[in-house]
Amino acid sequence: MTETDADDLAHLIRNAHRVVVFTGAGISTESGIPDFRSPGGVWSKMKPIMFQDFVASRDARREAWTRVFNRTAGWTGASPNAGHYAVAQLVEAGKVTSVITQNVDNLHQDSGVPDSKVIEVHGNASYAKCLTCGKRYELEALRHHWEADEDITCMFCTGLIKTATISFGQAMPEDEMARATEEALLADLFLVLGSSLVVYPAASLPLVAKKAGSNLAIINREATEQDPYADLVLNTDIGPLMSAVMGRL
Ligand SMILES: [Zn+2]
What we know:
Blueprint: H1 3-14, E1 19-23, H2 25-29, H3 42-45, H4 51-56, H5 58-69, H6 82-92, E2 96-101, H7 107-110, E3 118-120, E4 123-130, E5 136-138, H8 139-147, E6 161-165, H9 174-186, E7 189-193, H10 205-211, E8 215-219, E9 232-234, H11 238-246
Parallel strand pairs: 1-2, 1-7, 2-3, 7-8, 8-9
Antiparallel strand pairs: 4-5, 4-6
The structure holds zinc ion.
Zinc ion (ZN) binds next to loops.
Keywords: Metal-binding, NAD, Transferase, Zinc
Protein name: protein acetyllysine N-acetyltransferase
EC number: 2.3.1.286
């Protein structure tokens, strides 16, 4: 990161009224959460459990819950970093209207962003939900069922309970995608922090914003296919950059 990088991003943020932040794995790797798609990441070590298999197979559910309670996937239990806190400050200041995230780690909420301002397009791994009635369950309240080797089902409707993530093979959450699209259309700065922009349909949002007249800034360690459309591209770590930017606003 250079001083000019921080100046350039600070300039864009200062001149914007509706900043929409879009985050991916890159903001959370700085908190020690593995990027599960990268080489050496979680999915190169163990196969994801498809939604259809989870629903159809008790063994698949058992394996899924074992990964949760053994923390095999490493999705939860980390702490927010400087990047998350900078975003939280910008939300608090009214500069950022919403945070769209592909992450399931709850770190935006943990850093102080109100739940109502976080749009989770891939769900959340820090709690569970009944697949039938939607009732929320805290993970620790379910642990004894896993320890007793019981199938984990809803106490109200007997539906299957699963972590609140969007699994491979599971439909995207319609309400969240609709809200995210609306936010992208209203943005005057769409700020990508730590996403390689390869997982669709979420990755279509920056161009939705750009086509509607927003500025687009992409901050990611590696280049992305959407860099040619961006007003600013910085290939750098997020925490140090955002700390420097906050000092300039
Ligand atoms: Zn239920």
